[in-house]
Amino acid sequence: MANLKRYNDGLFKLDLWIRRLLAMGDWELLHTALCDGACEIVRAETAAFTSVDLPGGTITYTAASGGWNPMVSGMTEPLTSGSLCASVAVCGTPLRLDRIDSPRRENCELLKVMEMDTALLVPVFEDGRVTGCISAYRLGHPFDQIDEQLLQQYAHSASMVMRNFRLMEDLRRHAAMLEEEIAERSRAEETIRQMAYYDALTGLPNRRLFNDRLQQSLAMAQRQERPLAVMFLDLDRFKVINDTLGHTIGDQLLMAVARRLRECCRREGDTVARQGGDEFIITLSLVSEAKDAVTVAQKIIEGFHRPFSVDGHELFVTTSIGISFFPHDGQTGDALVKNADFAMYRAKEQGRNNFQLYAPEMNSRAFDRLALENSLRKALDREEFILYYQPKVNVEHCQITCMEALVRWQHPEQGIVPPSRFIPLAEETGLIVPLGEWVLRTACRQNRLWQDAGYPPMQIAVNLSPRQLKQGDLVATVRSALDESGLDPRWLILEVTEGIMMESDEGTLATFRILERMGVQIAIDDFGTGYSSLHYLKKFPVHALKIDRSFVRDITSNSDDEAIASAVITMAKGLNLRVVAEGVETVEQLEVLRALDCRYMQGHLFSKPAPAEQFAPLLGSAAGAYLNFGTWC
Ligand SMILES: Nc1nc2c(ncn2[C@@H]2O[C@@H]3COP(=O)(O)O[C@H]4[C@@H](O)[C@H](n5cnc6c(=O)[nH]c(N)nc65)O[C@@H]4COP(=O)(O)O[C@H]3[C@H]2O)c(=O)[nH]1
């Protein structure tokens, strides 16, 4: 009866301890509690848990109950040590010792520490393999069969707890990995969202997000029958800052501008977005009347009167703003933005640093020009310009001696735009300076490419505009275009109009002299159309004259034209200058000019201006093989 009661008591405690073990948070606590449980269940003085590594051939005393834990935990023995725990691990059967004799004690690291004299050991199995051993010890009071049964059951339940613990650990690890993956993915998603909807430089919504928001605001404005304002902003002369101080400063300025715009438009329903470059667009969806938007525009313009502090520079920038209103100035987002853009151009026209409200007449022909200017301003960045080339031919030797670079604008909607439509506008707006620089660099590079491809060397002629001489450092630009392309200066000829020569001052003269010393040649274009004066021909380092095509056109029928051409050719000879007749379209014109001793000609008779690649077959062989001009030479 007493034994049964002891057995039941033991089972009760076992149940209690298994529940406790299940609640343990980590392996160390679990193992120590496991030992404490064993002590209580079989009323032992002390107990230990040994983990068994059968493949590794070792056992490790992992934990012990009570104060023994720090002393025993971590002790390792080989499975062959012959200690009590090692024997149980190897045999996989319980071991009860009523008396621990000296040789046993000597063999066992644990018993060297604990001075116990009776022991009970049971194996712990997981998946049919011994993975541990629970050992209980007493002083002078041996364990019996009931103790053995209880400890075996405890070991069995404990192995399930440990298995459970391991599974939970795996689960937790997987959950953590999943969480990490989810966190990474949600981002990644956020990055994609940022990239798709926000401008990378300023962090402002981009055009796409702006359009979405504008659609929503328009729908709301329609429902509530309220007005809505769209503003189009462009920084005045931003390009000058960008070109002089560099793109890094330019970028920082744009970031500072974005911050200031956000300060000015903080109300719910305001969206400030970057349209691209130095252009920003804003929607004000909670305006009750037009003057609210005007107030915001004034606030922005005044806000720009404070300098922007960028990288130690105090930069003063102004802005021009155009405003359009829903429903008055447009029913759709596109119309509102376009009309605000028109109004912004009006603001530019009015001297910049101001705002203009859209008016329908802005959408008329006068604004076509503004629109052209607008797209011209963007064309360079968008790489819409290309160069065509037209050969100048030495009719005596039947050779191409030069290629004139002639710029074309590949307008995304209008197709190829001829220079007559945009060069004057570029000249007027100053855009000719960066455009001319691009032409120069591209032409030098192309000529070098031809030379590198093994074609006979020839000159490349580049047209210079008056503004390029007045503005910017022409010498430096030419030098860097030559350096960059590796073109020898003697293969570059700059064409300037008579007008430039006549209006030029000492500064221009000095520029030409430096260019000449560098080895670059100068030609006078459209010769004879201005008030030609021998004086400047003597003064300037000129190498060639081009007889304007207006004299060539009727040279076969108009004796005056023939006389002028003849005089120019004779004068050029006297001054030791080359003469090129331009606009030669017919064999008859060629014959008259040849009779006048003009050796160099250019015109549709030989070739219309064309992209570089079209000249490859011609340049690779004798010039005469091209078209049929060999027959006329
Ligand atoms: N009717 C007729 N025309 C012929 C004939 N042969 C050539 N042409 C045209 O005459 C113009 C010659 O160039 P330009 O006198 O320098 O006159 C150029 C030049 O002043 C200006 N231009 C062109 N490219 C540039 C450039 O890169 N920079 C500057 N600053 N001006 C340029 O635009 C002007 C017009 O250029 P394009 O339209 O390319 O017109 C070219 C060429 O296409 C012909 O046999 N018959």
TrEMBL record:
Positions of the EAL domain: 369-623
GO biological process: cellular response to nitric oxide
Residues annotated as domain GGDEF: 226-360
NCBIfam families: GGDEF
Highest taxon, organism lineage: Bacteria
SMART domains linked: EAL (SM00052), GAF (SM00065), GGDEF (SM00267)
Record protein name field: Diguanylate cyclase
Gene Ontology MF term list: cyclic-guanylate-specific phosphodiesterase activity
Reactions accelerated catalytically: 3',3'-c-di-GMP + H2O = 5'-phosphoguanylyl(3'->5')guanosine + H(+)
